Amino acid sequence: MDGADTAGIIWYLAVLVLVGAALLSRRIQLRSAIGMILAWISIFAIVLTLVSYRDEIGFVAQRVTSDVLGRPRQLADGSRLRIAASSDGHYWVDGDVNGIPTRFLIDSGATFTALSTSTAQAASIEIDTQRMPVALSTANGPVEAQRAMVRQLAIGSIKTEDLPVVTSPAFGEVNVVGMNMLARLKSWQVRDKAMILEP
Known about the structure:
The chain has about 200 residues and is an alpha+beta fold. The protein has helices at about 5-25, 30-50, 55-70, 115-120, 180; strands at about 75, 80-85, 90-95, 100-105, 115, 135-140, 140-155, 160-165, 175, 185-190, 195-199.
């Protein structure tokens, strides 16, 4: 048993002694005393539960808030980012491109990170005209996209610099975080209907 455990036990004993002394000084009947002791035990149990499950409770609160406000459901857990699946089964996250607020779809099936034309223009991204466009296969068929470079891209608290991207009017207003961004992370996984990203 280390010093922290000993200190914790001493603290709890001190609290119980204070509660017991308060009960004796008031000459409260045994039934009332037992009721008060049970009430204190319940309070301690609730506090302990809240502390032990604070991350899960925070995630649930974030999820409810996001559903009510119609925002992507994401929660920072230390350096990690946890993103709940939306009602369409996809993982949406708020971020920014060169400081411009942007909403992304995380797609592990996409090779490249892709930006809509409007996002690329708002973030002042210059198209690489020296290189040939890249041909992509999408759900809507083959698409030709221009290559570009993002100075800084962030999703939640995770940031990366000098990220190659593609952009095309064919993407509509959808911005996609692809594998070339996910590959820069320490790890990413899907667990309990949530995507967890670790920088």
